[in-house]
Amino acid sequence: MNPTPQEDQARAALRARQGMGARYDAPAAPAGDMLLARRATAFFARKLNELTDAALDLPSSRPGLPRRHLIVIAGYQARMLAELVAWVREGQAGPPPRRANVEPDEIAWGMTLPSHALRNLVRHAVVHLDVEWRDLSDRQWEQTVTDAGGVALSIRETPMIRARTLREIVMDLDVGVTTANLPDGIRL
Protein backbone atom coordinates (compact mmCIF):
# COMPACT_ATOMS: atom_id res chain seq x y z
CA MET A 1 0.00 0.00 0.00
CA ASN A 2 1.55 3.27 -1.09
CA PRO A 3 0.69 6.64 0.45
CA THR A 4 -1.60 8.86 -1.57
CA PRO A 5 -0.42 12.27 -2.82
CA GLN A 6 -2.54 13.86 -0.08
CA GLU A 7 -0.82 11.72 2.56
CA ASP A 8 2.59 12.68 1.14
CA GLN A 9 1.59 16.36 1.29
CA ALA A 10 0.33 15.99 4.86
CA ARG A 11 3.59 14.26 5.83
CA ALA A 12 5.66 17.08 4.29
CA ALA A 13 3.59 19.71 6.11
CA LEU A 14 3.99 17.86 9.41
CA ARG A 15 7.76 17.66 8.97
CA ALA A 16 7.89 21.38 8.28
CA ARG A 17 5.93 22.09 11.48
CA GLN A 18 8.04 19.72 13.59
CA GLY A 19 11.35 21.21 12.56
CA MET A 20 14.89 19.88 12.34
CA GLY A 21 14.99 18.03 15.68
CA ALA A 22 12.21 15.56 14.87
CA ARG A 23 13.03 11.99 13.79
CA TYR A 24 11.31 10.13 10.98
CA ASP A 25 11.09 6.72 9.39
CA ALA A 26 14.01 5.82 7.13
CA PRO A 27 13.43 6.45 3.42
CA ALA A 28 13.62 2.69 2.76
CA ALA A 29 10.97 1.90 5.38
CA PRO A 30 7.83 0.32 3.91
CA ALA A 31 5.80 3.54 4.15
CA GLY A 32 2.51 2.03 3.02
CA ASP A 33 2.74 -0.89 5.43
CA MET A 34 3.79 1.46 8.23
CA LEU A 35 0.76 3.65 7.53
CA LEU A 36 -1.48 0.60 7.59
CA ALA A 37 0.00 -0.61 10.89
CA ARG A 38 -0.35 2.82 12.46
CA ARG A 39 -3.95 3.17 11.29
CA ALA A 40 -4.79 -0.30 12.59
CA THR A 41 -3.17 0.66 15.90
CA ALA A 42 -5.23 3.84 16.15
CA PHE A 43 -8.45 1.99 15.32
CA PHE A 44 -7.69 -0.74 17.86
CA ALA A 45 -6.87 1.89 20.50
CA ARG A 46 -10.17 3.66 19.85
CA LYS A 47 -12.12 0.41 20.27
CA LEU A 48 -10.16 -0.47 23.42
CA ASN A 49 -10.87 2.95 24.89
CA GLU A 50 -14.60 2.48 24.21
CA LEU A 51 -14.65 -0.60 26.45
CA THR A 52 -15.34 -0.20 30.13
CA ASP A 53 -13.12 -2.07 32.55
CA ALA A 54 -15.92 -4.56 33.21
CA ALA A 55 -16.37 -5.09 29.45
CA LEU A 56 -12.77 -6.31 29.16
CA ASP A 57 -13.82 -9.56 30.83
CA LEU A 58 -16.81 -10.21 28.58
CA PRO A 59 -16.51 -12.93 25.94
CA SER A 60 -14.92 -12.24 22.59
CA SER A 61 -16.13 -13.92 19.42
CA ARG A 62 -13.35 -16.51 19.87
CA PRO A 63 -14.90 -19.41 21.78
CA GLY A 64 -13.78 -19.52 25.40
CA LEU A 65 -11.66 -16.36 25.26
CA PRO A 66 -12.55 -13.12 27.03
CA ARG A 67 -11.70 -9.82 25.38
CA ARG A 68 -8.91 -9.39 27.93
CA HIS A 69 -7.09 -12.37 26.41
CA LEU A 70 -7.04 -10.74 22.97
CA ILE A 71 -5.96 -7.39 24.39
CA VAL A 72 -3.08 -9.10 26.19
CA ILE A 73 -2.01 -10.61 22.86
CA ALA A 74 -2.15 -7.18 21.21
CA GLY A 75 0.04 -5.66 23.90
CA TYR A 76 2.58 -8.45 24.11
CA GLN A 77 2.83 -8.82 20.35
CA ALA A 78 3.83 -5.14 20.09
CA ARG A 79 6.40 -5.68 22.85
CA MET A 80 7.77 -8.83 21.19
CA LEU A 81 8.07 -7.15 17.78
CA ALA A 82 9.74 -4.13 19.39
CA GLU A 83 12.31 -6.39 21.07
CA LEU A 84 13.09 -8.20 17.81
CA VAL A 85 13.36 -4.94 15.86
CA ALA A 86 15.60 -3.51 18.60
CA TRP A 87 17.82 -6.60 18.35
CA VAL A 88 18.44 -5.77 14.69
CA ARG A 89 18.69 -2.01 15.25
CA GLU A 90 21.29 -2.47 17.98
CA GLY A 91 23.32 -4.86 15.81
CA GLN A 92 23.17 -7.70 18.32
CA ALA A 93 24.96 -10.89 17.30
CA GLY A 94 23.25 -14.27 17.11
CA PRO A 95 19.60 -15.05 17.60
CA PRO A 96 17.53 -12.95 19.99
CA PRO A 97 16.70 -14.59 23.30
CA ARG A 98 12.99 -14.94 22.54
CA ARG A 99 10.62 -16.45 20.02
CA ALA A 100 8.66 -14.42 17.46
CA ASN A 101 5.32 -15.11 19.07
CA VAL A 102 3.45 -14.34 22.26
CA GLU A 103 4.08 -17.15 24.71
CA PRO A 104 1.28 -18.79 26.74
CA ASP A 105 2.91 -17.84 30.06
CA GLU A 106 2.93 -14.18 28.99
CA ILE A 107 -0.77 -14.40 28.16
CA ALA A 108 -1.55 -16.10 31.49
CA TRP A 109 0.34 -13.41 33.43
CA GLY A 110 -1.14 -10.57 31.37
CA MET A 111 -4.64 -11.84 32.05
CA THR A 112 -4.06 -11.11 35.76
CA LEU A 113 -3.24 -7.43 35.20
CA PRO A 114 -5.70 -4.87 36.50
CA SER A 115 -7.57 -3.14 33.68
CA HIS A 116 -5.59 0.10 33.92
CA ALA A 117 -2.30 -1.84 33.82
CA LEU A 118 -3.46 -3.82 30.79
CA ARG A 119 -4.36 -0.60 28.98
CA ASN A 120 -0.96 0.86 29.91
CA LEU A 121 0.81 -2.27 28.67
CA VAL A 122 -0.81 -1.82 25.26
CA ARG A 123 -0.09 1.92 25.09
CA HIS A 124 3.56 1.61 26.13
CA ALA A 125 4.27 -1.39 23.89
CA VAL A 126 2.78 0.41 20.90
CA VAL A 127 4.96 3.47 21.49
CA HIS A 128 8.05 1.29 21.96
CA LEU A 129 7.39 -0.56 18.70
CA ASP A 130 6.83 2.66 16.79
CA VAL A 131 10.08 4.15 18.15
CA GLU A 132 12.03 1.02 17.20
CA TRP A 133 10.61 1.11 13.67
CA ARG A 134 11.36 4.81 13.35
CA ASP A 135 14.98 4.38 14.41
CA LEU A 136 15.82 1.65 11.89
CA SER A 137 18.23 2.56 9.11
CA ASP A 138 17.57 1.79 5.45
CA ARG A 139 19.91 -1.20 5.67
CA GLN A 140 18.27 -2.55 8.82
CA TRP A 141 14.85 -2.58 7.17
CA GLU A 142 16.25 -5.18 4.77
CA GLN A 143 17.50 -7.54 7.47
CA THR A 144 16.03 -10.79 8.70
CA VAL A 145 16.25 -11.97 12.28
CA THR A 146 16.06 -15.62 13.29
CA ASP A 147 14.35 -16.00 16.65
CA ALA A 148 15.25 -18.32 19.51
CA GLY A 149 13.04 -21.01 17.99
CA GLY A 150 14.74 -20.86 14.59
CA VAL A 151 11.97 -18.94 12.84
CA ALA A 152 13.18 -16.29 10.37
CA LEU A 153 11.37 -12.95 10.43
CA SER A 154 11.93 -10.21 7.88
CA ILE A 155 12.02 -6.82 9.60
CA ARG A 156 10.32 -5.34 6.51
CA GLU A 157 7.32 -7.59 7.15
CA THR A 158 6.79 -6.55 10.78
CA PRO A 159 4.42 -3.63 10.07
CA MET A 160 2.12 -5.86 8.00
CA ILE A 161 2.30 -8.60 10.65
CA ARG A 162 1.20 -6.02 13.21
CA ALA A 163 -1.58 -4.63 11.02
CA ARG A 164 -3.00 -8.09 10.32
CA THR A 165 -2.92 -9.08 13.98
CA LEU A 166 -4.71 -5.92 15.08
CA ARG A 167 -7.29 -6.26 12.32
CA GLU A 168 -8.06 -9.81 13.45
CA ILE A 169 -8.14 -8.88 17.13
CA VAL A 170 -10.39 -5.85 16.73
CA MET A 171 -12.87 -7.93 14.76
CA ASP A 172 -12.72 -10.73 17.36
CA LEU A 173 -13.31 -8.36 20.30
CA ASP A 174 -17.01 -8.61 19.47
CA VAL A 175 -17.56 -4.87 19.55
CA GLY A 176 -19.51 -4.68 16.29
CA VAL A 177 -16.56 -4.48 13.90
CA THR A 178 -16.88 -6.60 10.77
CA THR A 179 -15.00 -6.75 7.50
CA ALA A 180 -17.77 -4.62 5.98
CA ASN A 181 -17.41 -1.75 8.47
CA LEU A 182 -13.63 -1.69 8.92
CA PRO A 183 -12.25 1.72 8.01
CA ASP A 184 -10.85 1.81 4.47
CA GLY A 185 -7.40 2.59 5.81
CA ILE A 186 -7.05 -0.80 7.53
CA ARG A 187 -8.72 -3.15 5.11
CA LEU A 188 -6.19 -5.73 3.98
UniProtKB/TrEMBL annotation:
InterPro entries in the record: DinB/YfiT-like (IPR034660), MDMPI_metal-binding (IPR024344)
Top-level taxon: Bacteria
Gene3D superfamilies the UniProt entry points to: dinb family like domain
MF term (GO), any: metal ion binding
Pfam families the record matches: MDMPI_N (PF11716)
SUPFAM superfamilies: DinB/YfiT-like putative metalloenzymes (SSF109854)
Domain named Mycothiol-dependent maleylpyruvate isomerase metal-binding: residues: 38-164
UniProt-recorded name of the protein: Mycothiol-dependent maleylpyruvate isomerase metal-binding domain-containing protein
